[in-house]
Fold this protein.
Amino acid sequence: MSARINYILIVFTLTFSVFNTSYTWFGFFNKSVAAPKNSGSKHTESATSFNPNDILFTPTINVHVNSDSRSASASAAKNSSRQKLLDSSRERAQQHINSLSHVIMHNKFTTALTVASISYIALQSTLLYLRHNLYLPDCWSKWHNTKTLSELYTVPQPTLAKQLINDIQHTYTKLSNPLDFTTPLISFVRDLETEIKYLNLYKSLIKKVQLYKINRIIWFDDKLLEETPDRLHRLAYIKNTFFTWLVDHKIEIQKPLL
């Protein structure tokens, strides 16, 4: 019983000492320290209060370098350098243009003669190139050339298509891959479109030559020009025959799957 009373008294004493500010650290921090009186003055200075912040550690300020801002600065510098280079290139190009304009303005006759000569050579060379390609013996516009276009229309299209496919395979099949059936068809379509383009271009250039009345200095093949419409119609009919066969062929292949 006496042990319990002693235990209660100890707990009570500790509790009282905690809440009594006169005997705690908080009370020590809040107590005023009396300052000595100044003999030469009527007033006394107030006691200096103890600042608990004086014993606290000063927080360390860590300065972190922002990598994003650094990369943004580098990117801005790079863009600025690129812009300067672009401006410099534009300035040099403008200087060259101004220099060329100056030369042209002070040499008008020579410049006009040079441009005319280059244009003449380019036009005449193009016409000769087109003529050479359109006179090749394997042109598809010459296919069945022993028959007129009207006679070709009288041939049943399935029969004509069979002959066309056989000729395509004989023309484009390679000995290295004789079983390849698709590649010759692709090559045929490519050559057919190229020939149509050449014929249309030849006809268009001759029309411009005649329009500007320069046919006296530009040579072209009158016979080829006369044949151009018939050859274009023949190619159109051959193309139609081929694609009609292609559609029927695809349908035949798909029948077992339907």
